[in-house]
From TrEMBL:
Family matches, as InterPro entries: NF-kappa-B_Signaling_Reg, PDDEXK-like_dom_sf, Restrct_endonuc-II-like, YqaJ_viral_recombinase
Xref: SUPFAM superfamilies: Restriction endonuclease-like (SSF52980)
GO annotation (BP), single: DNA repair
Protein name (Swiss-Prot/TrEMBL): YqaJ viral recombinase domain-containing protein
Organism expressing this protein natively: Prunus armeniaca (Apricot)
Residue ranges of every copy of the YqaJ viral recombinase domain listed in the record: 56-173
Domain of life where this protein originates: Eukaryota
Signal peptide: none
Pfam families according to UniProt: YqaJ
């Protein structure tokens, strides 16, 4: 499989995925790409479109991960119900779409831009379980894009990095970085800081031409309310 990277901000990701041997079938209605074979293997599951270091779906299976916190508290229509069905095994868990593939492919580029802007070094921990430090809370977990450890005036400053690469439905003409953090991102952000025991978060929004960077701080009161709602799971 060949992935054709964008050369200008006007390219469409939908039209930039190709397969060798002409075995790709594209359904423009649902944007589902599959091999024309009896197995019906989804192109979206190709190794070249997976995250470059996060490979721990098995660890997440029986946890409520920070990336699902917004859905769990009802930010998205019907997604809370879908998450319930996933957790009880009634349906298969969400495994990705074109937007998540775009993020997987572009996150390393976004990371390099973040390091260039801030000068920060970034470490990449494995999937973190909240119960490691809080007995009885091991049903909560988090998968950070990176962590940052710095010394500021001789004092330790511990942060977590979250990278977003918005897809804009594949239309890079619309690709402008967010001017503010959407409210639906806050549950994930506060969850990451709490589970990893970090004081702040750098929230980086990447597009092919520009980026925006925000600093959030840990909010214990917000977390207490959020955790109470999450406990339904």
């Amino acid at each position: 499989m060949q992935l054709v990277g964008e050369t200008t901000a006007t390219n469409s990701f939908h039209s930039n995925i190709m397969l060798v041997n002409n075995r790709q079938v594209l359904n423009p209605c649902c944007c589902s790409l599959r091999f024309a074979s009896s197995g019906g293997y989804s192109v979206l599951h190709s190794s070249g479109l997976q995250h470059w270091f996060k490979n721990w779906q098995g660890h997440r299976k029986h946890k409520l991960a920070a990336s699902t916190f917004a859905a769990a508290v009802g930010f998205f229509h019907r997604r809370r119900l879908q998450l319930w069905l996933e957790k009880i095994g009634a349906i298969e868990p969400f495994s990705g779409n074109l937007a998540t593939c775009w993020s997987n492919v572009k996150e390393e580029e976004a990371l390099e831009r973040y390091k260039l802007i801030t000068g920060n070094s970034v470490l990449f921990p494995e999937f973190q379980v909240y119960g490691n430090t809080n007995a009885g809370d091991d049903w909560l977990g988090a998968s950070p894009d990176g962590v940052v450890d710095r010394l500021v005036y001789g004092l330790s400053s511990r942060g977590v990095l979250e990278i977003k690469c918005p897809f804009f439905d594949g239309n890079m003409k619309k690709a402008t970085p967010w001017l503010r953090i959407p409210l639906f991102c806050v549950p994930q952000a506060q969850g990451l800081m709490e589970i990893l025991d970090r004081d702040w978060m750098d929230f980086c929004v990447w597009t092919p031409t520009r980026s925006s960077l925000f600093r959030l701080y840990r909010d214990a009161e917000y977390w207490d309310v959020l955790k109470m709602v999450l406990s339904d799971f």
